[in-house]
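Lab notebook page, bench 4
Experiment: in silico fold of construct C2
Operator: M.H.
Input chain length: 378 residues
Purpose: comparison with the prior construct
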Amino acid sequence: MDLVSGYLTQSVTMLAAFLFVLTIVVFFHELGHFLVARWCGVRVDAFSVGFGRELAGFNDRHGTRWKLSLIPLGGYVKFAGDENAASMPDRTGLAGMTDAERAGTFPSKPVWQRAAVVAAGPIANFLLSIVIFAFVFGVYGKVVTSPLLQEIHPGSAAEQAGLQPGDLVLSVDGRQITTFTDLQRIVSASADVALTLDVDRKGEVVRVVVTPQYKEISDGFGGTQKVGLLGVTRSPAQEDLTRIQYGPLEAVAEGARETWFIAARTLDYLSKVVTGRESADQLGGPIRVAQVSGQVAGLGIIPLLQLAAVLSVSIGLLNLMPVPMLDGGHLVYYAVEAVRGKPLSERVQDVGFRIGIALVLMLMVFATWNDVSRLAGG
């Protein structure tokens, strides 16, 4: 009975954490669309967190229906003149409107305003990430470790290159290194790539060329990830730990740098998947997000907020993919319209949306398959 109770408690915690993280990310994404649409004079029919049947909602004074829907795997803002949540134009409805009614619809707006409304969603995700990281850095600061190498593992890339215990890493390929995390981030993204390290060895600057080995390691949440490794251990000494405190502006700048790092690493991984240099088995779907959310929730609210920031960057990048139905696909359509001076034909747009839906569904199925495979293998 205790086993069943523990399992139920764990499941409820995982679900609650997952909904907390996803709701924050989705709400701010859609809020970005909503606010810019209002600024451009577009009437908003509905603002929904989730899809499907409405569970609860209310109408604001502008006539927008704010609602919480049954399936919590996303959300949408439906503008006047839209046929559906994917913002496909309702051509029949538009044809039956008066000029005054049509003026407040999304399709009637200039292409730059439509592009601004669409881009506002992903931009809101990036801003949310910056704000969360800035809050964490501003309130709690950051504990960092000096890039002092305490131990060199036998047979590792570091040993083969001639690195020694006590070496203090100063730079990698000319980039200054101030913390062990700086070193880890460069190395993990540089498997099988030769790196030039300048190290301080007993007061003398020594240059070492090392190629990180491609290894599969635990991600700390029951899964694995493939990264570059040197095979070194940092110094655990208390004097090599430093807590950095940030003022408000410094915290925002550090939050922006952290957001940029996550975005750059994500894009680097995706580009390697496309070119065949990385396996796509690291892609995760809703099951994986729920699993990690539950585990992170046990560490406290701050790690959970940081997970929301990471997920927010991922959602922003995903939506910028040039796939019809996603924000990036709409932006491609608008770019073509701006160049041609007129939109693509209805048939081309409809075919594009169908292809986009198919691609998104295929990606969801593939990511979910990866999630199930991890669970079965674990």
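Observations: The mean pLDDT is 83. DSSP finds eleven helices and twelve strands in the chain.
Next step: discuss at group meeting.
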